[in-house]
Amino acid sequence: FSSSVTEIYQAENSKLNYYSTQDFKENYHYNSINVFQKRDSVSNFFTVSFSGSIVRNNLNICLHDKSCYTNMYGFYAMSDKSLIDNHTSVDHVDENSLSNEHYKGIMGGRSNGVFNGKIFVRKKAQKTNAFQSNNNIILSDKSKVNTKPQLEIWADDVKCSHGCTIGQLDKEALFYLKSRGIPEKEAIALLTYGFANSILKSVNIPSLKKRINSLISKKLGVDLGFDL
């Protein structure tokens, strides 16, 4: 069992890139990150989770002043009986701030994925732009995902959206790859990589990207021989 708490205070005009990767096998892990941003600060958060009996990721961001900007990227891929639970919140307190949140998940085996995202736009936070999306692929009839994107808006001059999707791999795309001589296992891996790439291409550290690529290959049980 492990539990961690991180508190981040961003001064005016500061910039932050924060990466968190997890591959805990059968462990229990609870992770809480709390962020307080001042004026004109920029933050980018990347949360990547692969396994664990129970993994709980809490990411809470307060955009306290004007012109704050945050990107939140998440990816989770699991099998067996893993439970990965992502809870996020973004609090727009003042005007002219932007938040962009995109999480993707792949569930196989008997795994269980959870996404619970909240965006708050206070009355003072006019000219806010807030976007939230969660997309999931189910690879097994015994796996499942629970997703709950939420918006609470008290201002009237804003642009906000949220949504979620849950589905399976495209059968026509899978058939096309197999008809070109690619074995089914490798074809599934190719389609899964394509699904994950829109999130993972934002990782700017080559060694970390290579590590994540290796973990995804291991999770899928196939080595495609290229990096994302």
Q: What share of the residues lie within helices?
A: 10-25%
By DSSP, the count of extended strands is 12
Work out the strand percent.
over 45%
Number of helices: 3
Helix-strand makeup class: alpha/beta
Output the radius of gyration.
18 Å
Give the CA-based shape. Answer: globular
- Following the backbone from N to C, one meets helices and strands in this order, namely EEEEEEEEEEEEHHH
Oligomer: single chain
Overall pLDDT metric? 90
Verbal overview:
With 228 residues, this protein is α/β, with parallel strands linked by helices. The protein has three helices and twelve strands. The strands form two sheets. It has a six-stranded parallel sheet, with no helix packed on it. Strands 2-4-6-8-10-12 form a six-stranded parallel sheet, covered by helices on one side. The longest helix is centred in the last third of the chain and has 17 residues. It is globular and about 55 Å long. The mean pLDDT is 90.
